[in-house]
Amino acid sequence: MSAGDLQPLDESWQRALAIAAHPDDFEYGMASAVAKWTAAGKSVAYLLATRGEAGLALPPHVAGPLREEEERRSAAVVGVSDVEFLDHRDGVVEYGLELRRDLSAAVRRHRPEIVLTINHHDTWGGPSFNMADHRNVGLAALDAVRDAANPWIFPPSTTQAAEAWDGVRMVCIAGSPRATHAVDVSGFLEVGIASLREHAAYLDHVGTEADSWLRGMAEETGARIGTEHAVSFEVVQR
User: What CATH number did the domain enclosing 30 receive?
Assistant: First the structure.
C-alpha cells in the first residue's frame, strides 16, 4: 500500500483481548497503541499461547519463568494487569482444535469487543518467512472469534465458559504486510519502547536495540497517515 492509504482504526470500544504466541510479540509496535488505549480508560487483557521458553540460550525450565516475568513487567508499563499464559510449547505450537478451543474459551471469558493478534501471513512483507508459532496462533485467533460465537462449537462442558460470546466487532492484526488501518500513537511511542525494553534477556539474546527499530517503524507508518507516530493493523470485520 502507498502513503495515505491507511484508514483510522475505529476506537469506539471499551474491552480488548490481545492474543499472541510469545512474550515480546505485543511489544514490537502494538504496545504503543495499548498504552494509548489504557490511558483513555479502555480495558486490554493479554493472552500468550506459550511462555517463550525456547527463545533464549537457557534451558526451557529457566527461560520460561524469566520470560513470563519480563512480559508481566512489560504489560504493566502500558497499563495491562491481566496477563494469562497457556501451556502450548514454544516453537512447536500446532494449529488445530486444541488451540482453537483454548483461544475461544478465552474470548468467552473476557468478552471483548475487539481482538488484537499478530501476523498470520507467510511473511512480514519481504523475503523473511514468518515462523510457524506466529502463523498458527494468528490464524487460530481469527477462527476462535467465530468459534466463541457459536454455542454448538466447544460447548461450556469442554471450555468451562458460561456461554458463547458474539460481541467481537473486529480482529486487528499487528505486523501484517496487508495493513488496512492505523492508530496515531504520537505521545505514546516512548511508553511502547519502555515496554519492549522490559524484555531485557530476550533483546540481549537477539541483539535488538528497542529504540531505533520501533521509532523507525512508527515514523514510517505515521508518515502514511500524516502524523508523527503510528502503528498499523490489518482489520478483519465481523
Answer: 3.40.50.10320
